[in-house]
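Person: Show me a sequence?

Helper:
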Amino acid sequence: MRHLLFAFLILFFSPLRAQEEEVVFDKAVVHGGFGGPLIELSGMADQSGVMVGGGGGVIVNDFFFGGFGQGGSFAEHAIVGQLYPINFGYGGLWVGYVKPTHKALHFFSGVKIAGGSISIAESRDDFEDSLFDETVFVLQPEVGVEVNLWKWFRIALTGNLRVVSGIQPHNLAGLKNSDFNSGGMALTLRFGKFYRNE
């Protein structure tokens, strides 16, 4: 019986040893890194304006992984007949898919997963003593095209959709999540090293 069990184990495990084991990170190749500014036309509280920021990351195969931060204070909210500026900023994880990167014009996509804050203050420069404030979660997918201007500089034009959650209306003088959900257009400048072996 012992010999039969031993023979069975050899027959069972021999094909597994013959196959080459596949793992995810053995095939991951770093193709460079980048950083640069972000300029976005967006909306909040039924008003349009510009949000600015920056981001960067490392390029692995056809993906990039990094971080970003952006914000704006172009909108205003009326409280008891008086207008107060809204400050909105968020930042966090930025991941994307870009292929084929060796072509001058190519597909660009990404998603931003972030935490942030929204505050209503007496002036646009008053970030410390806000009248109302709230912490939020932001999910923002984007898709568009990117142009390789030089080997070290690329520019992407994308459309995006920002989805905000976590707002309690009494914390922001009646403003809701839907007041900050917005479609937008962004210009992303990427400076860095984008080498490939293609």
Summary: The chain has one domain: 30-194.
